[in-house]
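> tool_call: predict_assembly(chains=two)
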Amino acid sequence: MEVGKKQYKAWLYLAPTLILLIIFTIYPLINTFIIAFKENYNYLNIGYGKGPDSTEYEFSSWGLANFKAIFTKGDFLQYLKTTMIIVFVSVPISVVLSLIIAIALNSIKALQKFYQTVFFMPYVTNTIAIGMVFSVMFATHGGLINNLIKVFGGQPQNWLGGDLMDSAGNSLYPSYWKSMLVLLTYITWNALPFKILILLSGLQSIDKQYYQAAQIDGANKMRIALRITVPLLSPQIAYLTITSFIGAFKEYSSVVAIFGNQAGPKGYRRQMATVVWYVYDRMKTSDMTKGMGYAAAAAVVLFVIIMFFTAINSWVSNKRVHY
Amino acid sequence: MDIRLVNLTKVFADKDSEVRAVDNLDTVIPSGKLIGLLGPSGCGKSTTLYMIAGLLNPTEGQIFFGNADVTQLPPEKRGIGLVFQNYALYPHMTVKQNILFPLQNLKVPKAEALQRAQKVADLVAIGSLMNRKPKQLSGGQQQRVAIARALVKNPDVLLLDEPLSNLDARLRLQTREEIKRIQRETGITTIFVTHDQEEAMSISDEIIVMKDGVAQQKGAPQEVYNNPVNLFVAKFLGTPPINVFKGYIKDGGVYIGEDRILETELPEQEVTIGIRPEGFEVNEDGTGDFTFKIKLVEYIGRDKSVVAENEYCESPTFRFIVDADIKNIVDGRVIKAKIKPHKCFIFDKLTEKRLQ
């Protein structure tokens, strides 16, 4: 009786959060799966059931038609490739870089707080604002990067579209990999502050005696970093790797921040489109009877991919992480 | 290899204060011996150990290992092994990896390293635990792993920081014998730091008693116990502790109150008198020189531990030990005892230096 009463109270306190979660997270999640398997889904006709014509009925049939369509028609596979490149380049680089910066920050005494603040600044700055700064920096004409290249005597590049000719008079166009370089630089840089913060607090909680012991044991700086610091930081590193993998698979706002909602340099629409960009694009702009189903199918595909890599990540960290 | 500390000084300073943790320490630690650095917390014993290890830089003074001045050498070049108070075993490595770590840093070939690790593990009797993680070991086993890790690179000097403080009472007895045995078998110059006088006295070849960063006395444990140079050393050594009384010297006699307890050649003055618990001789007929009232008698097997009262004692009661056979010791009775001269020390009232 006593237990039952307490449980009732607990549920009561949880209710506001639970209700919101169910309405805005769990129901849409389940519904996305359902929609993904409905051919010619039209959300204006919800409740009209299955029928031959989706101008009058909600959908025409159950099946894998949406999945078949996104993999065979359009550029979904290209967007998937772009997303994969973002994930497998930006996550390792940003984790390793933030680890190096955190260790360096932790080893200096003077101005440590000042540098901590400096490195944390991007985190509190608006993503879109930083994206615009990047697009100004990489601007084809008058951008900081191209100006620097000029100072060192190089050939300015067409990063973000516009007209540009080299000295021989040939036109330069923004290529996929040039756009990718800009995007990866931005994503990596943007991902650093939070990681540095987490790693730095992890570093500061490591008992100093391990370092004294390692010093007595004659380990040099590199060995101390690799054999003492990294293993002792492994819980933080695993946490960051898993969450940034998930985050990078969902990359969207960085693309919009740099390239706008065209997802590419001027005149190169969708060059840098990602899976999530595709989901938005299908939902908003394509025709009523196909778009929502395609978007749902793409979301399900992304969900499965993220599940798969997260499972691998946690399997690896179960073996490698020392709590 | 002997260790010489020359005017070793460590000052910890911050904005508004400075602490002389170790003050002009000047001593020689003989080769191949087990030396206990003994003192209450904050006396500078651990600081001294860390300076010998090279983890702290002395403010002044020098450290010699044999004839070599190692004052400026980093820890890894000094050829020392250090066992930390809480062992500092690498939690993510197995016992074997922990012991191998110093050898890997020295780039010892793998086969030789494994052999040496196994040998030293067997020496400290953890040879069968090589694949466990530190968390899976008891405190005593962790302690042994830490000693093995310190010994595996064949250091010239082994340093132990409060090696027994994290163990329970029974393990402590066992481990201190173990440390003594390992030290004997390896013949390595060993310094260990402790605040527990019993621990230091039981296994050390020599002890150095420290107070406020200053070495008070150095010598064989029994020698220091029998001949303390000052009141601090006398109080610090011995369980139960020495009993301290206010007294004076008059007409060639030592007095506590009205009782003339001993003869002396010291000039007349006020003194502080220390009497070891075993320095009281109670006769069956109750005759003697020193009068006191018995508060409580405890039987501890072979001996009786007696709590008694005397108004000139520095503390409300004092405690002494006599043979269990002596019969006239009963609660509440006022009796007399003779004082054994060699168990009674007379100190200057102000400087607390030993007078006799």
